Amino acid sequence: MKTELYKKIVDLIKRNGQITIDQYFSLCLSDSEFGYYKACNPFGVDGDFVTAPEISQIFGEMLAIFLIFAWEQHGFPRCVRLIEMGPGRGTMMLDVLRTICKLRPDFFAILSIYMIENSERLVSIQKKNLSFYGDKINWCVGISDVPPGFTFLMANEFFDSLPIKQFVITNDGMRERMIDIDHHELLVFGIGKNAITSPVSPFNDYFPGMILETSPCRDSAIQSIADRLVCEGGTAIVIDYGHLQSGMGDTLQAVKGHKYDPPLMHPGQADLSSHVDFQRLSSISILRKLYINGCVKQGKFLECLGIWHRVFSLMKNTDRADILLDSVRRLVGMSSDDKSMGELFKVLVVSHRKVDLVPFVNCDCF
């Protein structure tokens, strides 16, 4: 059965012609009537996918430890804005704050928290889940709304949800990949009618059919983060699934009920995302005068922070050690060729100046 958004997109194409991938992406997630974040419950067992903080509270605990070390290495700034972009249900922030409060109450005392969220529905859920921290937490639509001040910023599975463009190599040059309808009024992929000269790709070995992905939205987001850090000082940590080196290929995907779904099948009722190009994010950060502390696989990052020490400590005092161990294995991975989050997800850390941050000072990083 076609979704209401499916019908709306078909009508839009009938009136105006093909739409771009990024237009489709935005409609699927953010349409004011039928968008995914407007109508669906994305997160957790009852949603469409599970994020790292939903798998184990230890993930948030490790990020809290990272932030504590970063605060110390930055010289104990006396006023800190802790920003989270795309905070989901607030689960990660809850674990982070609980851990900081327990380990370094002096750090907790000087924090002011800012959640960057556009969905009124998710804001309501976040406020409920974080109610214990009351007036310490603020909600903003964009990073520009956060008051000046030294900044720690977290973005976990934020960049993958920002719209992308796709370009196809043809015998007649590069053309933008589009969304069209066939004679049965079904959504299908197509290509633009006119060849284009941009975007410039760093790859030389082209052949027809190859797909290049770009994301002006992601470029803009990392630029905003960089500008904030350069102006106010601080460190940002970006965690997402993607690749350490730029490449060609179609990574657009939809997830519905914890299973992959054809991207054009259920617009508005499936989560839409694509792989993040961490080399691109790093390059933009460098151009904006940021220092790259490290860019590594999530599993390596967590291991170097000491996640297994925490796990073995908890296992001594629980009768659910097997469940705990399984959840952390999902986060870390057990081999270099597995499909765990530890291998697929990457961690990028950037700062406004060169600073030795744990775990990068004691870990062989990429």
Any overview of this molecule?
By secondary structure, the protein is an alpha/beta fold. It has a domain at 38-160 and 225-243 and 269-353: Rossmann fold (3-Layer(aba) Sandwich). It contains 14 helices and 16 strands. The chain has helices spanning 4-16, 21-30, 36-39, 52-55, 57-73, 91-103, 105-109, 120-129, 216-232, 278-287, 298-305, 307-315, 321-332, 341-344; strands at residues 19-20, 80-85, 111-116, 137-140, 150-156, 165-170, 173-181, 187-191, 211-214, 234-243, 253-256, 259-261, 271-273, 276-277, 291-297, 345-351. Strands 2, 3, 4, 5, 10, 14, 15 and 16 form an 8-stranded mixed sheet that branches. Helix 9 packs across helix 10. The longest helix is centred in the first third of the chain and has 17 residues, at 57-73. The N and C termini lie far apart (46 Å).
Task: Give a quick summary of the entry.
This protein has 366 residues and is α/β, with parallel strands linked by helices.
Helices and strands in order:
Blueprint (H helix, E strand, L loop, with lengths): L3 H13 L2 E2 H10 L5 H4 L12 H4 L1 H17 L6 E6 L5 H13 L1 H5 L1 E6 L3 H10 L7 E4 L9 E7 L8 E6 L2 E9 L5 E5 L19 E4 L1 H17 L1 E10 L9 E4 L2 E3 L9 E3 L2 E2 H10 L3 E7 H8 L1 H9 L5 H12 L8 H4 E7 L15
Parallel strand pairs: 2-3, 2-5, 3-4, 5-10, 10-14
Antiparallel strand pairs: 1-7, 6-7, 6-9, 7-8, 10-16, 11-12, 11-13, 15-16
Helix pairs in contact: 5-6, 9-10, 12-13
Protein name: TetR family transcriptional regulator
GO molecular function: protein-arginine omega-N symmetric methyltransferase activity
InterPro entries: NDUFAF7, NDUFAF7_sf, SAM-dependent_MTases_sf
